[in-house]
Each structure stands twice: as structure tokens, then as C-alpha cells.
Design goal:
The protein contains 18 helices and 14 strands. It has a seven-stranded mixed beta sheet with strand order 8-7-6-1-2-5-14, with helices on both faces. Strands 9-10-11 form a three-stranded antiparallel beta sheet, covered by helices on one side. Strands 3-4 form a two-stranded antiparallel sheet.
């Protein structure tokens, strides 16, 4: 990895070839692009990434696409065409890319002659992040696996919802984004091993959506192994940690309160006028509070129901209790703290319309990430990348475009 002199982008000099589509692979590559990696996104010349047409469209293109494809260069190549496959192999063989990120079903790239073994034979330094539902091996490796399936199979959905009611899902694709973060972390770990650790060799990063979800389930496995305990759905609460929950206030708004430490619990009880519970030695530790969860929860619920949400938050904040409202996006964009932190970046769509997008996080003081441009039009960089990196002349490019092997859109 060769850094550009004077660069303020942490990953400048790292070039990533994104062969995935939809969410998990593109999310991983978006993270890398946000910190300066040159991400070349390969798309089907006819359709592009399906995410271009998902959810709310502006001027025919999804706003979700504009965010997840920001800072990337779109090159439209038909990976089913032998000439298209040959171009990808040239990008790898000639050392133009450091990393490939893909999230096809296992075996698909191998069928196109683009699997890791084939590409690593051309460039042993190549790192490939492979994201799939169940991983590259095992009896279910070849089965399709989307985020909703992974969240269910790996145990997250079992824990989500109200006791005695069907499991529910979050309104975002957690399985995909969590797997994408694992893939991005894997890429950076592999780059460090290759370039700083000195191995000089690439490797495969095998990311399964199911395993990425399972990895975040805290002590679920050892608690089952040692005690045979199966954690169940607990609604707005959290098993084994008291008090923490969501409470309806007098004005119909909801607040979330967490007072898990011993000292914070005592402050909470005094703030709501329950000195008796604050001073009760039975509630002095989390273990004791868990035994009396219903009594504690009833005290907090009674206080919240007698006061407006704003009053509850003011009182508890003054007492240094963790408390906050449940906010919709309409409230988030007006939140003074988020505004002060710069959580919303201002960008511009192709017709000049200003639009806010989530800032690139986490925040690095010396080499921060950011949005350089929003997701491009399909094939916007085909000529730039293939002409610039591979030296394809105009006649060759036009022939491949006319034959449907490539696509080249507006910049």
C-alpha cells in the first residue's frame, strides 16, 4: 500500500475492487471509501446495483444508493462475459488493486474464473473479503442467506420483541451492516499483516452474516453451556440488568432510562422520590435488583406516568442519570447535540439539490473520513478507470460498450 504524500485520508493509496451488490459488500467498501480508499465498484451494464432502485427514489435513483455508493467510482462490466472477466483479471494481475470485496453466493465467482485461487495466482498480494450468508464452507454454504435469515438463524430475532409474542425485526438490515463492518475490519487487519507485519501475502477474509450476528450476542453461549439457560425476549428491558427500560410519560411520549450502576440507581430512586428503595440494602447490587425487578420497574413507571417527558428528562439529567427520548428522524435532525457534533454532512445531488447524509464515523482527529461525492451514475467512471489503469484506447472502449460488455454513463 503506497500512501500519497501529504494525504489527510487514512486509507489513501489503498485500492479496492468491489464486486458485490445490495448491502453487505457495498457497506464494507463504503466504510473503506469514507476514509480515502479508491473503491472501484463493478456493476452490471444493464441494471447496475439493484439498490439503485430500492426505497425512495429521487430523479429515478435511490437516495440510499447515493449514500452507500458515495466516494466510489462506478465501472460497468458484464462479469458473465469472457471479455469482462478478462478485464477484472487484468486489474488484479497488473497490481492495480489491493483488495477485492465481494458478496456473491459462494461458487459464483469461481464459475466466472474470478475466485480467490485464480486471482491470487495472478497476484499473491491480493486480499479478498468474501461475505455470504453462511460462509464459504459448511453444509449451508451454497444456500442464499439474507440479513433477515441470518438474524433469525444466529439468535438475534429470538431475543427481540415482547415476551409471549412473535419475534420482531429492526427496520434496518442489521445482519448486512454488521457483517459489512466485520469485513472492513478484516480488510484492515489483513492489510496490516501484509504490509506492516511483513508477510507480503494476501489472504481470504471469510465473513458470514450468521457468524457476524452471533459474535455480538454477549454471554448467550457460555450461559447456556454452564447453566442451560436460554435467554428469552424481554421487550424494552434487558435480562439480568436492572433498571433499564422504556417508559410512557404523562404526555404520551416515551423515554428510555438506564441506571445500571449501584450509585446511579440510588440517585435515580432519590430523584423520583423513592428514598425507601434507594436506601434498601436489598437493592444495593444488580443481583438484588434483578430479584426485585417488578417492584423497581413499577416505581419508575409510576413516576414517568405522572410527569411529562421533558420534565422527566430534565430531572434525571440533573441527577446525572442516563436518560433520553425515543427520536424519529424528524427529531434527530433537530437534535442540538447531533448538530454540534456534525453528524449530518451536506452534499449536493446532480441537479444541485442539497441533501444531508450521515457523516462518516468514527471520527479520526488527524485523518478524518468524509464524503467527497455521492453515489455516481451507472458506469460513470468506466472510461476513466479502464482507460487510465488498463490503457484501453477509445476504439476498444467503444467496441466493448457497443457489444454490451461495458457500460459508460454520465459523470
Amino acid at each position: 500500500m503506497e500512501r500519497h504524500a501529504g494525504s489527510t485520508q487514512a486509507l489513501a493509496g489503498l485500492r479496492v475492487l468491489e464486486l458485490g451488490q445490495l448491502i453487505a459488500g457495498p457497506f464494507a467498501a463504503a466504510y473503506l471509501a469514507g476514509f480515502g480508499a479508491d473503491v472501484i465498484k463493478i456493476e452490471d451494464p444493464r441494471r447496475g446495483d439493484p439498490l439503485r432502485s430500492w426505497r425512495k427514489l429521487y430523479d429515478g435513483t435511490s437516495l440510499w444508493w447515493r449514500v452507500i455508493a458515495r466516494n466510489k467510482r462506478s465501472v460497468a462490466v458484464d462479469l458473465r462475459a469472457p471479455e469482462g472477466q478478462a478485464l477484472v483479471r487484468r486489474l488484479v494481475a497488473e497490481g492495480h488493486v489491493d483488495v477485492v470485496v465481494e458478496n456473491f453466493r459462494p461458487g459464483r465467482l469461481e464459475a466466472w474464473g474470478l475466485g480467490y485461487d485464480a486471482l491470487a495466482a495472478l497476484n499473491p498480494r491480493l486480499i479478498m473479503a468474501r461475505i455470504s450468508g453462511y460462509g464459504q464452507t459448511g453444509p449451508k454454504a451454497n444456500e442464499p442467506g439474507f440479513a433477515n435469515i441470518a438474524e433469525s438463524v444466529a439468535g438475534l430475532r429470538y431475543l427481540t420483541g415482547e415476551p409471549g409474542r412473535p419475534p420482531v425485526r429492526s427496520q434496518v438490515s442489521l445482519g448486512d451492516t454488521i457483517a459489512g463492518l466485520h469485513a472492513a475490519l478484516g480488510v484492515l487487519t489483513a492489510v496490516y499483516a501484509r504490509d506492516v507485519g511483513g508477510s507480503g501475502e494476501g489472504q481470504v477474509i471469510d465473513v458470514a452474516l450468521t457468524e457476524s450476528i452471533f459474535a455480538m450476542l454477549e454471554s448467550l453461549l457460555p450461559e447456556y453451556d454452564v447453566f442451560g439457560h436460554v435467554r428469552e425476549r424481554a421487550g424494552a428491558g434487558l435480562e439480568g440488568i436492572v433498571p433499564t427500560g422504556t417508559y410512557a410519560c404523562k404526555d404520551g411520549a416515551f423515554v428510555v432510562i438506564g441506571a445500571n450502576s449501584d450509585s446511579m440507581f440510588r440517585r435515580l430512586m432519590r430523584a423520583i422520590g423513592r428514598d425507601d428503595l434507594a436506601d434498601d440494602p436489598a437493592f444495593g447490587s444488580n443481583a438484588g435488583r434483578v430479584e426485585h425487578e417488578a417492584r423497581i420497574d413499577a416505581a419508575i413507571r409510576g413516576y414517568a406516568e405522572a410527569h411529562a417527558a421533558r420534565e422527566v428528562m430534565a430531572t434525571l439529567t440533573a441527577a446525572e442519570i442516563a436518560v433520553g427520548p425515543i427520536q424519529s428522524i424528524a427529531e434527530i435532525v433537530r437534535d442540538p447535540h447531533f448538530i454540534a457534533r456534525g453528524l449530518f454532512e451536506q452534499a449536493t445531488l446532480g441537479d444541485g439539490l442539497g441533501v444531508r447524509v450521515p457523516a462518516v464515523v468514527p471520527r479520526l482527529t488527524a485523518t478524518p473520513g468524509g464524503t467527497r461525492w455521492l453515489g455516481p451514475e451507472l458506469g460513470a467512471h468506466t472510461r476513466e478507470v479502464l482507460g487510465g489503469l488498463l490503457g484501453l484506447d477509445d476504439a476498444t472502449l467503444e467496441r466493448l460498450i457497443a457489444g454490451g460488455v461495458l457500460g459508460a454513463g454520465e459523470r
